[in-house]
TrEMBL record:
Family classification: Belongs to the short-chain dehydrogenases/reductases (SDR) family.
Gene3D superfamilies reported for this sequence: NAD(P)-binding Rossmann-like Domain
GO molecular function: oxidoreductase activity
Keyword Transport: no
InterPro entries cross-referenced by the UniProt entry: NAD(P)-bd_dom_sf (IPR036291), SDR_fam (IPR002347), SDR_oxidoreductase (IPR051911)
Phylogenetic lineage: Bacteria, Pseudomonadati, Bacteroidota, Chitinophagia, Chitinophagales
Transmembrane feature ranges: none
Name the record gives this protein: SDR family oxidoreductase
Swiss-Prot/TrEMBL keywords: Oxidoreductase
Length: 275
């Protein structure tokens, strides 16, 4: 049996590491990429898994990792653009470097990896690109301005690319998690701090409290892994894959409720203090 090969970004922890393990366990070759592969303590021990140094913000590492993975495995069947992080906080407190890093990582980095693999996919007249988007790319939340902007960009990019590549035999799929129990609010997040910006204190305290409250009720990240596997192994051109009841509910509300009512519901849920 010919093993299929999946190329995954952001495999040092979280979704990326879990996705790599899941595909390896199901008989796939895995090209697992991360910024510092020498720090990996798990994936390099697994059969049919190769690690590659890749920082999505450094184009040279993207090109090198893609070329080496194709050399090692001959063919890449699926790309999972997973690398990313969340820059959260009151937008006025964000520095120029915060804005650049958020977009450079979540948006331009994803585009770089996709562009690097497109010639290979087109040459084979096949391939699947799975972008880890977010329900935050369909609905906006206070405190998430930069993260929302990056995920709206990812979702919009994926939807446009879907049309361009379908005629080439390449499927683009968008996985949309809701709130999940991952390290997003730990190593995968930065919070803007600027004590010189005044006037947001009560709003910020309440909003942060409610966000953490919702995070504690997040869903099992294994749902995302299973959804990615379904997207990779289902031979259709289905575009959107919402993950979990929260994401499904929010998307349903988005499409059936008038926008003013939806905004009022969102504002109440996020900005009113919960015990």
């Amino acid at each position: 049996m010919n093993r299929k090969t999946i190329f995954i970004t952001g495999c040092s922890s979280g979704f990326g590491q879990m996705i790599a393990q899941h595909f390896q366990q199901h008989g796939w070759n895995v090209a697992a990429t991360m910024r510092t592969p020498e720090k990996d303590t798990l994936l390099h021990t697994l059969p049919n898994v190769k690690l590659y140094r890749l920082d999505v913000t450094i184009p040279e590492t993207v090109d090198a990792a893609v070329i080496q993975a194709i050399t090692d495995f001959c063919k890449i069947d699926v790309l999972v653009n997973n690398a990313g992080y969340g820059a959260l906080g009151i937008f006025e407190k964000a520095k120029e470097e915060d804005m650049r890093r958020q977009m450079e990582t979540n948006v331009l980095g994803l585009m770089r990896v996709t562009k690097a693999l497109l010639p290979h996919f087109r040459a084979n007249r096949s391939g699947t690109i799975i972008n880890i988007g977010s329900v935050a790319g369909e609905l906006a939340f206070p405190y998430f301005a930069l993260y929302n902007a990056s995920k709206y960009a990812v979702n919009g990019f994926s939807k446009a690319l879907y049309y361009e590549l379908k005629m080439q035999g390449i499927a683009v799929k968008l996985v949309l998690p809701g709130m999940m129990k991952t390290d997003f609010f730990g190593r995968s997040m930065t919070v803007f701090e600027d004590n010189a910006v005044k006037g947001y204190e009560k709003f910020e305290e309440t909003t942060r409290h409610n966000i953490m409250h919702m995070a504690e009720r997040g869903e099992d990240p294994a749902l995302v892994v299973r959804t990615v596997f379904k997207a990779a192994t289902t031979d259709t051109f289905r575009l959107m894959y919402p993950v979990g009841w929260q994401a499904r509910l929010l998307l349903i509300l988005k499409y059936i409720l008038p926008h003013p009512l939806l905004r009022r519901i969102m504002e109440t849920a996020i900005t009113r203090r919960k015990i």
